[in-house]
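Assemble and predict.
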Amino acid sequence: MSQRVKTGIVMLNLGGPGTLDEVEPFLLELFADREIIQLPAQRWLGPFVARRRAPAVRELYAKIGGGSPILHWTRLQGEGMVERLDRLSPETAPHGFYVAFRYASPKSEDALRAMEADGVERAVAFTQYPQFSCSTTGSSLNELWRAAGRLRLRDRFRWSIVDRWPVHPGFVEAMTDTVRRGLERFPAEERDQVLILFSAHSLPLRVINRGDSYPQEIGASVQAVMTRLGFSHPWLLSYQSEVGPVPWQGPSTEKVIRELGTKGRTHLLVVPIAFTSDHIETLSELDLEYGELAHKVGITSYVRAPALNDDPRFLDALADVVHEHLRSGDAHSVQYPVRCPGCVNPQCRNILNPVGI
Amino acid sequence: MSQRVKTGIVMLNLGGPGTLDEVEPFLLELFADREIIQLPAQRWLGPFVARRRAPAVRELYAKIGGGSPILHWTRLQGEGMVERLDRLSPETAPHGFYVAFRYASPKSEDALRAMEADGVERAVAFTQYPQFSCSTTGSSLNELWRAAGRLRLRDRFRWSIVDRWPVHPGFVEAMTDTVRRGLERFPAEERDQVLILFSAHSLPLRVINRGDSYPQEIGASVQAVMTRLGFSHPWLLSYQSEVGPVPWQGPSTEKVIRELGTKGRTHLLVVPIAFTSDHIETLSELDLEYGELAHKVGITSYVRAPALNDDPRFLDALADVVHEHLRSGDAHSVQYPVRCPGCVNPQCRNILNPVGI
């Protein structure tokens, strides 16, 4: 048996199918989550839509190597973070990390069972989404508490939450460095023609209009990165990955790329500002789909900035976020308990068995 | 004749009717501006809508003292700014300020004529909107260049532009101080119940979807103020003043106030984050209309943070923005020349006779 873990850090994220066989189960989970997608007669329509979309989505995953690399990156991030935390914060060591994906394995149950086995008492739910949205971090946290209830582990751990870190200096520095590395991929003599396009996952306007804080925090992240970069290049912000018939927050990344090409822009650096690891939205949507579109509309130099993945600066940032959080003694941010003004979810903004109470 | 002015600073803003008689002319100008409002057959429908709305708008101005105080505040701001600049930057002194409102007197022509009379050679077009939008700063700049053409003054001045300052440290500090003063208006023992609601003027989604940078910059301003405030209270961001049948960026301030009341919130501090002076949107919409709404929905303690107006910290900030700008030697920000990807305005992002070329 391994050494007992004193502080367990649960890394919350969306997750992704590791193999092509896992695509349909992943979509079934996604379309069953009423905190992110509301369909009429969801118990029947959800599986129907998921199964109908599965073949096309399988094809996309086949093109990026047969599965999502998000678990691979999350594990490397967890290892790097924990190793640094053991050095930074010996009083809370040994630290362990536990991956809890929302729609793929390992899930919240897997994380909680492993924490119990490791003898964890102090637990930190650490969202891997830098900017908070009820659709992402909110849904993951709610599922974590539900899973603890299902496993009868409601009183097993003392919890605190890192629920957002949109302008954490280490994150901003690491993200700025990905922009710098992206810029270096343009020939030096053409570099001043580059426009930087920050792209974030979109949200339905219904979610925005409830009062979700996501677009405010995205705007802040973008400004922080550009400030750190010394405003060396002009930039835009757009939103990607909208699906279905409902209206989404714009401007749409796809539409922006098309329009920029039409207006004669030739050099574009796309920066995923709301994801920390490569996954389908970077490798397929940004690299393949929009790369092809860019080429078609005359953007001859199209570069996507590297994801943070296992960049040592980012591992430093992850460790620093948790270290600062542990030192603060706070159970959560001042924002976390404030439900969206238009919230319709009876279960939200909870915390199980919090520290300091 | 007064002393010749070496550096003229044009303070661009929306403006407002100074008296009730000026309400209709103001609305006629506003509804004629195709850069902000597009109506079918605008030459006929614009005046029709303006005249139909005039009586109701006159009534609103009557309730806030018979006119907009925006010229009063802008003049005090200009005087304070110029006096500070003469001390900070003797090499560009004497400085003069010239108010150029978009829809009320004094207009761009008035400013340009006064600059000519004062012998100005070096001119700075300084937007009084901290966050850039094509609908506000963009429209004002375009009108300024057109007015210079109409007056045959195209080559009379060497121009540079301060086109945005959403996170300027002096602005952030002054804005944070208005939040602190707002918080002090709640009894000390109730202060920790306060939710801060930042409210910015909304934009039609059509403008947002063209790629206008306004919401990104608003998000950055909000984050900067909350960082400066040490995240002492939770906050939300909403958008106010939407009119007409088209969809606008949400969440709507009015709807948010209603929902917060319904959810049992009793202490609310509203902070106008995109305006620097009191005018109809603060004195009438936020104070009277939403104040009454808040009372109705159970928000027993509703406070609106003071506008920056002639706060000495804000006058320091205005002077510092211009001083930094003059020292940089830049004609404009790196963002200014980049048109929105979906721009449909043939005349935009220009600068007349720029410095340094």
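DSSP finds eleven helices and eight strands in chain B.
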